[in-house]
Amino acid sequence: MPPVITAFEKSPDRGRGQARDMRVRWAFEEVGQPYEVRLVSFADMKEPAHRALHPFGQIPTYEEDGLALFESGAIVLHIAERHDGLLPGDAMARARAITWMFAALSTLEPPILDLTYAKIVERAEPWYAQRLPIVEDRIRVRLNELSLRLGDAEWLDGDFSAGDLMMVTVVRRLNGSGLLEDYPRLLAYVARGEARPAFQRAFDDQLAVFTAASAG
Predict the structure, then answer these.
(1) Are 182 and 120 contained in the same domain?
(2) What is the mean pLDDT of residues 189-193?
(3) Count of CA atoms in the C-beta half-sphere (13 A) of 153
(4) Cα 59 from Cα 36, distance rounded (Å)
(5) Confidence of residue 120 (pLDDT cuts 50, 70, 90)
(6) Phi first, then psi: what are they for 39, rounded to 5°?
(7) Are 144 and 192 in a shared domain?
(8) Whole-structure pTM value
(9) C-alpha span between 207 and 204 (Å, rounded)
């Protein structure tokens, strides 16, 4: 039996490929491994059965042969360690690729998610107009640092790796925000990730779920 992951039955990202199951789908496509998807509603995610897999009631989860995992980064790392294609064979290059995975989730993603939260939840607050530039400036600091590190390279450290996969999925959350346009290297970097056939297959699969839910 192939691994089973969970994903939103009705994703709040409206088919833009921003939900975290996208990272797992992309990883499976990069390594050429089959997987199955079990769709869950927001109500399902808070039920005991799902919380047994994910104690915080979120997606994605991963199940295979009695192993249950949660957190997209941990799942992608598990896939990358089991199959060729996402981690280098050289031990030091492998360690650097994993470092970039953590950097994406721990350094880049928090301020980017803070912007999303501010725009959705805090927009009506009287201090929103003052807070927004502060949040955006924190993101610009990280984007500038990432752009300088990337330079003119195609990927972060040699060949495409799980570190790039995680970083692209994090940075592309800024698509449409107007922030990426000041960093042409990062715009091109994200575009290269999105152009990969494995990304396109994963994106199409996630989009199909949203399209079916909308039609229903």
Answers:
(1) yes
(2) 98
(3) 13
(4) 14
(5) confident
(6) -85, 140
(7) yes
(8) 0.95
(9) 5
